[in-house]
Design brief:
This protein has 292 residues and is mainly α. It has one domain: MetI-like (MetI-like fold, Orthogonal Bundle), CATH 1.10.3720. Helices cover 75% and strands 0% of the residues. It has helices at residues 2-11, 13-31, 66-102, 104-119, 122-132, 139-165, 169-176, 181-217, 228-237, 246-274, 276-291. α3 packs antiparallel against α8 and α8 runs antiparallel to α10. The two termini are 28 Å apart. The chain crosses the membrane at residues 15-35, 78-103, 109-129, 136-154, 189-209, 216-236, 248-274. It is a multi-pass membrane protein. Its main location: membrane.
Length: 292
């Protein structure tokens, strides 16, 4: 994996930019563990101070240091996105592997459930669910809810991959040798699915953070927990832009843009790197270089 990252970093400018930005954001998230303030407390700093040497990104109308609050927001947003991606990838991959290999009635039942979640408009349902459980909502609960609407896309894509794999000779050989279904799926088919899972994992993180930010702006997230979305929400509630406290609203918006761009570029770069046609081109280029 480290060799792949090194090669991509040297050869792909999009990957280099996205990876560098993501590393910086992860570093800021780790700084949250050394924050001198509890992110849920108000009035721990003077209000509405512009950026200075003491307060790098200024302070807000809630009496919070925006820099340290932002480190917690980045950490919580990345945690929410990663947890959503892990749950949805696990469920979608398992469903896709089983449905694609077994086929028949099992395939029809699983894909009927899968497609039912796909056709449901996710945003209105998420707004409704968040409104109902608003008093008990948390980052983990939001991640679980978001994963319910993100796993079906992965499930259908994995199924399409496995449908082709089950007709290959190595699948017939494994079946005739007496291997059970679980072993065939995990040892023969899963390795072919993993490259796609790596790319889709990044896409799911991007989608989850974007959806939580949308819910937070509507006031339907865990507002006492700092995330990129809730930081924007409180800045809007206190009319930061109209009152000239531009650093309060500008900072989370800029971080959100950088995070989305970096994750998108990483997803595109990883997808291209794992694409079989691109890999063949790289192999031919290497062979040409060796012959020269």
């Amino acid at each position: 994996m480290f060799l792949v990252i090194r090669d991509l970093y040297k050869s792909d400018k999009k990957f280099a930019f996205g990876f560098t930005v993501l590393v910086v954001l992860v570093f800021l998230a780790l700084l949250s563990f050394f924050a001198p303030y509890d992110p849920k407390l108000w009035n721990v700093a003077p209000k509405n101070l512009p950026p200075s040497f003491k307060y790098i990104l200024g302070t807000n109308s809630m009496g919070q240091d925006i820099f340290w609050n932002l480190t917690h927001a980045i950490k919580n947003s990345l945690f929410l996105g990663s947890l959503t991606a892990i749950i949805s990838i696990l469920v979608g991959t398992i469903v896709g592997l089983i449905a694609g290999y077994l086929g028949g009635r099992v395939d029809r039942i699983l894909m009927s459930i899968n497609d039912s979640f796909i056709v449901i408009p996710s945003l209105p349902i998420l707004i409704l669910i968040s409104s109902i459980i608003k008093q008990h909502i948390s980052i983990i609960l939001i991640a679980i809810i978001l994963s319910l609407f993100s796993w079906p896309w992965g499930g259908r894509q994995v199924r399409s991959i496995v449908l082709g794999l089950r007709e290959r000779e190595f699948t017939y050989t494994a079946n005739f040798s007496g291997m059970d279904t679980l072993k065939i799926v995990l040892t023969e088919h899963l390795p072919f699915v993993i490259p796609w899972v790596m790319a889709n994992f990044i896409n799911t993180i991007l989608w989850a953070i974007g959806m939580e930010t949308t819910l937070a702006i509507y006031g339907l997230s865990s507002l006492e927990t700092p995330t990129i979305g809730t930081t924007i929400y409180w800045a809007l509630q206190y009319q930061a832009l109209l009152r000239g406290i531009w650093w309060w609203i500008f900072t989370p918006v800029l971080i959100a843009i950088l995070l989305f761009i970096s994750l998108y570029l990483l997803s595109v770069s990883v997808s291209n790197y794992l694409d079989p046609r691109t890999r063949l081109q790289r192999m031919r280029m290497k062979e040409g270089g060796l012959e020269a």
